[in-house]
Amino acid sequence: MQTKEDGVRATNQDFIRYDQVEKRQNYQLAEGVDGEEFDDEFQIQTVDIGRFLHGNNADKRAFATQLGDALHEIGFAILTGHGVDPNLYAEAERRIESIFTDLTLDEKMRFRAERFGSVNQGYFPIKETSNMHPDLVEGWVFCRRAFEDTNSFWPARDDAEFFRQIVAGHEKLILPVMQSLLTYLGCDAHLFDQKLTGTNFGLRLNYYPPVSDADDATGAARLLGHEDIDLFTFLPAPRVEGLQILNRRNMKWVRIAAPPGSIILNTGDYMQRISNDIFPSTTHRVSKPRDPRQRTATRVSLPMAVYLWEDEILEVLPCIANPKYPPVKAIQFHTSITSKFYGDGYAVTEA
């Protein structure tokens, strides 16, 4: 049986039996000590979603092509023109740090993460966000249910009401992104409109404390290399360095530095499954800053993962020939993958 300490040295292929889409890439979960290569030439594409939100049909088609090309190439893009007030992101960073530092561990553990439907929702202590690797991050996941029942899931209702504003801003982008990707694939652009109206999501608040010398010496990462288990993720650009993306074409890591106020968008396992691998679920991680002096600074982030409800069926889109994957219920697909993080008993199986 592997331990978390083993996870520092483990590769993704050690856990490949849990994955539900093809992932041929081979990488070490923590940032390797064996001279990993970086691709300093590659640039993640920046696309203006305002062209879709405010433009004519030609603008929408042009945006769909630009976004689709970027995600097909590497699974990541940077969105500008999204209309979400960047001041909300600045205030969110302040609130995240306060949530994690002002509450005692006992107070936070009252909200210890549990599975609701497909998604593990609630508080994750540092080094316990996964059973497979001692990540140097605390996390707190809030799904749609948490915004409908603020008393049960939030330590402070004021925080729930604040983060509701960010969720509402991101929800306005879900259909434009999905319609653009369906257009790029040659499908009916409105095929998922009903499924994604009021769909489930996971807003994850991440707090990365300063890296101690002892933790630095263990080889643990701030957040292990992984792929997201969703359709796509909206990540407001973090201020502190760390996010790295694996370029599958050359197996080199790309450091991403998105402009303040922009949103980093990436596709996940749900999207790779229904697109028949056209849009990859791209590996990424949060590494410790290159400058040792920056490692004494905190880092926060607030990615919002977009899911389908657990009873929906994931199947390759009807406009794509020669499907590689059979239909599967979202809850089975999702929990089979996340069993690698939370243990085999986490998976939901149905006859």
Protein architecture, described:
The chain is an alpha+beta fold. It has one domain: Jelly Rolls. It is 33% helix and 19% strand. The strands form 3 sheets. Strands 1, 2, 3, 4, 5, 6, 8, 11, 13 and 14 form a 10-stranded mixed β-sheet that branches. The radius of gyration is 19 Å and the shape is globular.
Class from helix and strand fractions: alpha+beta
Helix content: 25-40%
CATH class descriptor: Mainly Beta
How many separate structural domains?
A: 1
Oligomer: single chain
N-to-C CA distance: 28 Å
Q: What is the 3D shape?
A: globular
Q: Provide the succession of SSEs.
A: HEHHEHHEEEHHHHEHEEEEEHEEEEEH
Mean pLDDT score: 93
The share of residues in extended strands comes to 15-25%
Rg from alpha-carbon coordinates: 19 Å
The CATH superfamily name is B-lactam Antibiotic, Isopenicillin N Synthase, Chain
Number of helices: 12
Low-confidence runs: none
- E-strand count: 16
